[in-house]
Amino acid sequence: MQPTFTIIAPVYNEAESLPVLYQRVKEVMDSTGEPWELMLIDDGSNDGSTDMIRSLAKQDERVRPIIFARNFGHQIAVTAGLDYSRGQAVIIIDSDLQDPPEVILDLIAKWREGFEVVYAVRAEREGETWFKTFTASLFYRLIYRITDIKIPLDTGDFRLMDRKVVNVMNSMREKHRFLRGMSAWVGFKQTGVPYKRAARFAGSTKYPFRKMFRLALNAITGFSYFPLQVATYLGFIAALLSIIAIPIVAIGRLTGTGAFTGQATTLIAVLFLGGVQLICVGILGEYIGRIYDEVKGRPLYIVSQGPDDKE
Ligand code: UDP
Ligand code: MG
């Protein structure tokens, strides 16, 4: 039977949370009275989550496992879930229970009103370091400023998407994915629902600074050319400065006041512009590396066991 709802939860070493996640999702989804499926995507876990997903799938056929061949990252794991999902509405949640499954009912209510994307807005966050909250808040505001699409502030991947939206998302095969940007980009009728983001149920964050930084870069490069244009702006500023400086220096030297005779000025100018140029080359590199990844055309992920495979 085609399920009405698909719940997608990416799993990377979440063995302690999984049984509770399943239990709470089951209670919430059964209360809707509609058929549902829970897709658990194992993103290369090594703490026993994989076996736990398999045994949940054996217990309850509504649990559909996707086991990756290695760790591909959160955004890719969710992408696999979207690819395999069959529901009329698809809900993405974290498997660490920071996104309370009970909020799904609010998302569904908005969907029934006719909204095609319903994202959950973090009104409050519990149990997170000030550094995480601060960088997250900075990140959302930066993205909002410099990208062309308006990604709602303080929303993560916790959201509901209609089948129509999921089909469009599934046709977007870019390698460096920023799903909340992509789901804002597609348009359709969108709305937000506020919720209180809970603390992690167990374990520690799977998003160290390095991964957060990569996600931020993917978001910026995926949705904006602004960093590339910075080089142009800086170039104009430097050219303008030199046009003003050249006659001043020339007059200074000709009138013999002794100004601008030192080497320090030259050295500073060379170092400064050299630095600026290297940064600009690095920015170019970020874009070129991404173009290269697209051109290689490798699959987004490698599945070692799909939902319908026998072990
Ligand atoms: N996750 C994943 N692959 C990764 C990192 C994270 O599938 O490489 C999953 C993780 O299991 C969790 C979700 O992505 O369900 C969000 O990760 P996390 O809770 O660590 O991020 P945070 O909430 O701290 O931003
Ligand atoms: Mg989390």
Q: Main beta sheet: strand number and arrangement? A: 8 strands, mixed
Helix percent reads: 40-55%
Ions, cofactors and other bound molecules:
uridine-5'-diphosphate, magnesium ion
Form type? elongated
Average pLDDT: 90
Give the strand order of the largest sheet, numbering strands 1, 2, ... along the chain.
7-5-6-4-1-2-3-8
Report the count of strand segments.
8
Q: SSE string, helix = H, strand = E?
A: EHEHEHEHEHEHHEHHHE
Q: Rg, please?
A: 25 Å
Strand content: 15-25%
The first-to-last residue Cα distance is 22 Å
In DSSP terms, counting alpha (H) and pi (I) runs of 4 or more, how many helices?
10
Uncertain residue segments: none
The chain-level structural class is: alpha/beta
Structure description:
The chain is of the alpha/beta class. It is 49% helix and 17% strand. The protein contains 10 helices and 8 strands. Strands 7-5-6-4-1-2-3-8 form an 8-stranded mixed β-sheet, with helices on both faces. Helix 9 runs antiparallel to helix 10 (264-296). The protein is elongated and about 90 Å long. It starts with a strand and ends in a 6-residue tail after the last strand. Bound molecules: uridine-5'-diphosphate and magnesium ion.
